[in-house]
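Allow me, if you will, to draw on your knowledge of protein folds for a short while. I am sending you one protein, given as its amino acid sequence and as whole-number tokens for its backbone shapes. Kindly check, if you would, that the fold set down in the tokens agrees with what the sequence suggests. The record follows directly beneath this note:
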Amino acid sequence: MRSNDIMSRDAIRANMQAAIQSNDTEAFYQSFDQMLTCIEESIKADYQGQLAAMQADSDARTLTARGVRQLTTREKDYYHKLADAMRDKDPKQAIANLDVVMPETVVDAVFDELQTAHPLLSRISFTPTGGAIKLLMNTNGYQEAAWGPLCDEIVKELLSGFKEVDTGLLKLSAFLPVCKAMLDLGPERLDSYVRQVLYEALSNGLESGIIMGDGDNKPIGMIRDVSEGVSISGGKYPEKAAIDVTSLDAATVGKLLGLIAVDGNGKPRRVQDVLLIVNPQDYFQKVMPATTIMAPDGTYRSDVMPYPVSIIQSPALPVGKAVFGIGYKYFAAAGTATNGQIEYSDHYRFLEDERVYLIKAYCNGLPMDNNAFLNLNISGLKPTYLKVETVTPPAASTDAELSDLKIGALTLTPVFAGETTTYTASTTNATNTVTATPSDAGATIEITNKDTDGDTTNTVANGSAVTWFDGSNTLTVKVTAADGTTTKSYVVTVTKS
């Protein structure tokens, strides 16, 4: 296959995922072969470009700056010996006698890249491992310690119920057709090739198994029923009954959270690191419209949920399905063969002048309890719409009456009443404090005082002292209602002697 015939990696990955879902082995290997060629051509092109740019400078820092992963001494030793074995006249025997194994750091680098590119893998309990392991799981769920006096005897012993789960790893095989020219590009490029092939082999198998696996020589997926006593047919775990979800409003999400807030034994637990896993097509057609709102400034805010939930797209899920659950409650393990053996074939791709090697990756996984994940049917999920309610503000008050009027300790005649607007009073004081209290707090007060002739007027702040003129004073308290239009004036004739 020539470089200009190579499909994009995204297109190839989509074909591989489709082949996995349809269990089409021939289509999968065809796509995987295309991926290998794509990787090989990419590395060669990158090498040629870097070689031209670094004719006089090939130190490690420059290589690192150009994106080339720097190898440990053990990794370099491994790849040098691997390349020598691949060049040998009898590569099968040479590889069989290879006295070094693939360093764990190579596998760790692949896992780091997987977790970065596949958000789901970074949110579950993902463990790199070299072989079969056993998992101890707590079967008692939530427990409480007992309070008591400081020096009292221990009155309660926590239950120690654990079960041992055998997570023997299942095999993912990956062919490495290595063009002989690749062996001359150095250990860094060979490392890049091996890691990318491992990445593609693991990435296309892991998510499908973790989400949808039926347990029959596959991981047990999140959508599977792992309750105590569940009926397992032919090694396959049944799917959980799907929960119909037509909205992602607070009430619906709250009900879903309530279902996962108890463990498989019915005991309560904290709910955190919640995931909503959906097919990319469903995300754009259903989930995004259901979780997108327009902000007051006219911009849109996406993935808005009534509770902190991480929405993850995965092509492993069929259209119309979704998984809702606690990410860290899924355990997965993956690694390579513990002996680091690479098997050799002298028949496959012989005409292409390539030698073919086989590396084996191992993985398995299972939900830690049956309530950790829910199987959702979102085929009927509807978009969300902001409810806009038009509220007519209450009419402004027209109340322009006073509830009280005091002028120092002066006696008003008649006794003050809100409906009465004319009063008299006498004083020998030079000043008195005027306090007018409106019936409605939104009303405003304006107070003025005129002398007998009316040719002198003083404005008085409410609650402040008024200075009296000798003789007759006309004190006016004007009240303007909250509507700004309605007014009422109270007049007090004060005689100063």
About this structure: The chain has a mean pLDDT of 76. The first strand starts at residue 125 and ends at 128. The longest helix spans residues 25-53. The CA atoms of residues 174 and 290 lie 40 Å apart.
